């Protein structure tokens, strides 16, 4: 990793954030010992039968940090981390944070293309993978990637089958030694709060994801303010089901939010309703998070489960469009409150309050976590819209970095000269200051000059009782440029025709030009790694000639 490829916050703002106590100037890796001193052997992390107390977490993270240092990794180096949700993910993350080694958070479905291009872009010195996962040999993948990278990279493996040439992570975690001597030695070489702590991937669905570097200061603030906005406390038992390397389950408030509150993080590698419900019952889970499609699956499955879900107080739902009608079903079906989350790996996070009235909880995506977050809604000419009108959201703030890592040309497009991040999201802001996501700028379908927001059509079609999941994409057309093509998956036993879609939308008073002109039914929609409809794949599907 090259620090010159990181765009810093302006010095005067950094100073102001520090002076106001937003940035604490402490590395994230120093917290496990603070928690251990406060909470001792209280359970911090649960993964099936495996439980780690706070002291365990601190000692094992230190042991691994020492092992990583012995293998030649140090402050400012970076490693790709591709691990399924499990206790080792948390220890690996904290070991890196302790040493100042930057984990680049990959997702389990990534393969050679993503690992090699991102590994080369960042200049990683290691790749942390499971031996195999869901029948796929990640260890072999990591060795192929390592040999394709321009710089030598170690392969570090979590699992039973560690082959020659790989480093055994579990052996490093379990190694003996004097915890206090190690603690002192690692304290002495700790990174600073303003160093890059970790790297996240952007949620964009086009091309290779862009890399976002987050500092110890900014990410700690992200987790702390998120925990506050969601009322996390020492009684919180948070279930991480989405891939842990994504900002939502990691720090919004997620695993870090639970640990910062003295609570407990339960890691589960599958969103299957039976596994999720069993974990909720077994661990007394109080809070979890999901993208809308997953939350809806749980809501349907909850009707017939015999599992006791009564401990569940809150579900956080975010990541893609959720219509008010669908939102209203989720809480009652699961017997808990819904908090909507509008967030991004690039920074800004908004939540509806835990005690919001239904019109806010179901009808908005909430308000930013920090009074220092700046939101600006602009029209296509770049001028601010009138209050309450729809436009593209730009944002700046203490946990929204000023550029992607190492892509100055892209940064000139994605950030304004005065540091605003262009979210590409179409929003309006209610008089109370809540954000309502109305679609995406880049997700507009241009039908002969008429602009149609995919998000808007999706929200409307999602409300049809037949529909399980839906995505609207532009279908190239020689006559009008683009027409709306709708991809949908249906609930079991249901049918849907293009005419029924048109009737339903017309009945809702939707303008004729927005009515989809093609419907493709699929058993399930393809998804991006985090579970959003993969529009890139759907567009490709559209362009592939029909074999019939
Ligand atoms: C989360 O992060 P990313 O980086 O995967 O994706 C960010 C994008 C946003 O720009 C927006 O287009 C979309 O995902 N999005 C939503 C949304 N939340 C995110 N669109 C509509 N409604 C929402 N509630 O997706 C993410 C990160 C942290 C917390 C939650 C989600």
TrEMBL record:
SUPFAM superfamilies named among the record's database cross-references: Acetyl-CoA synthetase-like
Residue span(s) of domain AMP-dependent synthetase/ligase: 34-405
Domain of life (superkingdom): Bacteria
Residue stretches making up the AMP-binding enzyme C-terminal domain: 456-532
Gene3D superfamilies documented for this protein: 3.30.300.30, 3.40.50.980, Luciferase, Domain 3 (2.30.38.10)
Descriptive protein name: (2,3-dihydroxybenzoyl)adenylate synthase
Species of the source: Actinomadura yumaensis
